[in-house]
Amino acid sequence: MWWRFAQAVRRGEHRLSVTTWLTAVTAVLYTILPVDLIPELFLGPFGFVDDLGLWGVLLMLATREKNEWELRWKADERVVDAEAV
Fold first, then answer.
1. Domain range annotation of the chain
2. What is the DSSP string of 10-36?
3. Apex CA 63: angle with CA 22 and CA 20, to 5°?
4. Cα–Cα distance between 70 and 67 in angstroms, integer?
5. Side-chain half-sphere of 15: how many Cα atoms within 13 Å?
6. CA distances from 59 to 18, 21, 29, 78 (A)
7. From CA 44, how far away is CA 25, in angstroms rounded?
């Protein structure tokens, strides 16, 4: 279902909220850039907690978006076109 959701977003059938987009961009930049709230250099593996937390928030927001899309998608499947006789 994630693949269909990604395709729906790509085709413009579902618009992601601004919060989800900003969190996605922030998560990518925060992971790539050397600036860190909890530096891995000093704290070792514990330093990845802040990175994982941000990715966790992104996953939560993306799941919420996907669930909203699934509800609309399933509702659209139940609609049957009928011809007037």
1. 16-69
2. HHTSSPPPHHHHHHHHHHHHHHHSS--
3. 10
4. 5
5. 2
6. 15, 12, 16, 29
7. 25
How open is the CA angle 14-80-13, to the nearest 5 degrees?
10
Angle at 6 between CA 57 and CA 61, to 5 degrees: 15
What's the pLDDT tens digit per position in 14-55? 999 999 999 999 999 988 887 777 777 777 777 788 888 889
| The total number of residues written for the chain in this structure | 85
Q: Is the pTM of this model over 0.70?
A: yes
CA distance 43 to 72: 45
AA identity, residue 17? S
User: Which pair of tokens denotes residue 77?
Assistant: 């499947």
